[in-house]
Amino acid sequence: MDEIDNLATIQMEWKNLLMRNQLGSVEDRCPCPGAIGALVESCLAMEPSNRPTAAVIKKQLRKLNPHKLNAVDLMMAMMEKYSKTLEVMVAERTKDLIAEKQRTDELLHAMLPKQVADDLRMGRPMNADTFETCTVYFSDIVGFTVLSGKFSAMEVVVFLNKLYSCFDTIIDKHDVYKVETIGDAYMVVSGVPIRNGNKHAVNIANMALDLLHESKTFKIPNMPNESLKIRIGLHTGPVCAGVVGIKMPRYCLFGDTVNTASRMESHGEAYKIHMSDETKNCLLMECNENDYHLIERGFIDVKGKGPMRTWWLEGKRKNTNITYLPGQIS
């Protein structure tokens, strides 16, 4: 009686298994479910003598499914299928990795010059470099201390971020490199880290005019009626540049040129571009004397430097007619 119950249970199980098989994917379905079912039924005959032998079962199975793979072929087919799936997965992961690397590179190149960043990533030693000539730009906001006193700390951050994000967009149009921002101070250089002959003065002059023009239309958050007054200073000369530090490394400029450019800014006036005689001479080396509207300020006593001859850059001319005077106050 137990044997009959066991056979009945087995019959029920294989029928359920065959039914589930037919609901699966086409490639995994049983090719001849009816014939396979009859063969299984014969194997479950009550009388052992009525059951087919292993040789007969094997022969019938080959007739029912002549394309059935042997163990080795089946294993190779499974490996090929897995290999194709793996290739797709690897391609997707590689694509994600390339996109992530590109985002990382963009962030790194926003913090350091591309060549410097690549050298650091490759583990190459970073030695300071001397640049015989370049032009340095400094600007700050006139009355920033009083202005920031009217804001909360968070509002000051939002204000400066909005202003300098706008400036960053403008300088991308010129052959210059943004060195850093310290509080309300904004420092840019041309001719470093990529040397460009004597074109650095023209690049900085054009950029300074664009930034000054933009500052006049800039709206201070929460103070739409308040004017943003920036003061700009330019100087040309040699500098030493290199990466400083391991944690949060920065590409920094050193030398008297940097100090003098800062002095040009601090000795300047709101809405004006103040430049040294060296910058004016370098500017005229690359362009016609009538291309820019320059006004001599004369000799002024500069802190730490003594008397210096300086100039105001008022605008840019075209065909000797002044067409762009962002330095003028409307």
Give a brief outline of the structure.
This protein is 47% helix and 23% strand. It has 10 helices and 9 strands.
Strand/helix succession: HHHHHEHHEEHEEHEHEEE
Structural class of the helices, strands and pairings? alpha+beta
Using the CA coordinates, give the radius of gyration: 39 Å
Per DSSP E runs of 2 or more residues, the count of β-strands stands at 9
Low-confidence stretches: 320-330
Helical content, roughly? 40-55%
| Largest sheet report | 9 strands, mixed
Provide the β-strand percentage band.
15-25%
Contiguous helical run count: 10
Explain the overall architecture.
With 330 residues, the chain is of the alpha+beta class. It is 47% helix and 23% strand. A hairpin with a 2-residue loop joins β2 (177-182) and β3. The N and C termini lie far apart (110 Å). The model is unreliable at 320-330 (pLDDT under 50).
Keywords:
single chain; 330 residues; alpha+beta; nine-stranded mixed beta sheet; 10 helices; 9 strands; 47% helix; 23% strand; elongated; disordered C terminus
Question: What order do the helices and strands come in, and which of them pair?
Answer:
Blueprint: H1 2-22, H2 33-43, H3 54-64, H4 71-111, H5 114-121, E1 129-141, H6 144-148, H7 153-171, E2 177-182, E3 185-190, H8 200-217, E4 230-244, E5 250-254, H9 256-266, E6 273-276, H10 277-286, E7 292-302, E8 306-318, E9 321-324
